[in-house]
Amino acid sequence: MSSIEEYRRQLRQQVAVERAHSNEPRWSSRLESLGAEDVLGSPQGNMTDVDNLREAVVGARLNPDPAFRAEALGQIVSKSERSTAHQLPLEILSNPQETVQVRLAALRLLELLAISSPTFPEWRPAYLESLRIAIETSELRLSAFSALISQGDRRAQELLIRGLEDSEQALVSPADALNLLSEDPHADVRDLARQIVDQPPDERTLEAAIRHLAGDPSSVDRLRALVSDRQKTITARKLAAAALNALAPESLPVPDTQRSNNIRAESADVEAAEDPVEEFVRILASRRRRPS
Q1: pLDDT band, residue 168 (cuts 50/70/90)
Q2: Within a domain: residue 164?
Q3: What secondary structure does DSSP assign to 89-102, as a single string?
Q4: What is the DSSP string of 240-290?
Q5: In whole angstroms, what is the distance from residue 266 CA to residue 155 CA?
């Protein structure tokens, strides 16, 4: 699983966790486990729970534990008005002095708020700017780029393409750049993907480039050659087969079943003789022939 896919999986999990943990008793228990009573104490004067939490996150009574502050930030957002819940996460994400853990928590909260906040169009420019600031921190870069691309940010797209064209200007790996750009319907990097497939720097980048060629009619021969190239990884060859099946299924190099059976019968090492990609291609071909 690529780092981009892993990040998106974590974000989906975060959405589920936020919903599941939205009840007050579970949150109270979590705060206690993090030492909230020692840090927050009793409310100060007319201060509300949110005021006390905010003091522990960014105020005078700052809690030194990033895990606590990340959790507390989520609770502040859940207790805030929907129209203003974005304000503190924006402040934190834009602050390079804050810890990566707390800024990442802020980023994920902002991604959720970008979907649910009724005032998102008003604070979207500030959100994009905070993400651009986050890109300058290496540990946040991938997540920030993912959020920017999901917002259709042209500047982020340009930075990623520039990095693919010139490795000295790259802010993320070629594979991550290609995976990120695959989520942008306006990003056409097929020329770059073809170059990478012809001279791949590594297998992960090759696999990411193949995905971009699934809609490229000029890459039929290139994909067909990949499917048949046993020097490439099984994953890369299967990706090429799937792309070719979607693009030009009649061009799939369907193996000779009788020949394969003869090889199996003659080989002392059946596993070594079998090519799992050939079996994958047979399955694709059989599905095409199957009546609807």
Answers
A1: very high
A2: no
A3: HHHHHT-TTS-HHH
A4: HHHHHHHH-GGGS----HHHHHHHHHH-S-HHHH--HHHHHHHHHHHHHHS
A5: 58
CB 255, CB 278: distance < 8 Å:
yes
- Residue 6: the pLDDT is 62
Residue 219: closest CA among 192, 238, 200, 201: 192
Domains identified in the chain, total number: 2
Domain that holds residue 101: 1-38+50-151
CB 174 within 8 A of CB 164: yes
Percentage of the chain beyond pLDDT 90 is: 64
| pLDDT attached to residue 59 | 86
CA angle 90, 96, 102 (to 5 degrees): 60
Same domain? 18 vs 143: yes
CA-based end-to-end distance of the chain: 33
Q: Which tens digit of pLDDT belongs to each residue from 72-115?
A: 999 999 999 999 999 999 999 999 999 999 999 999 999 999 99
End-of-domain residue from the set 151, 170, 199: 151
Predicted confidence band of residue 185 (pLDDT cuts 50, 70, 90): confident
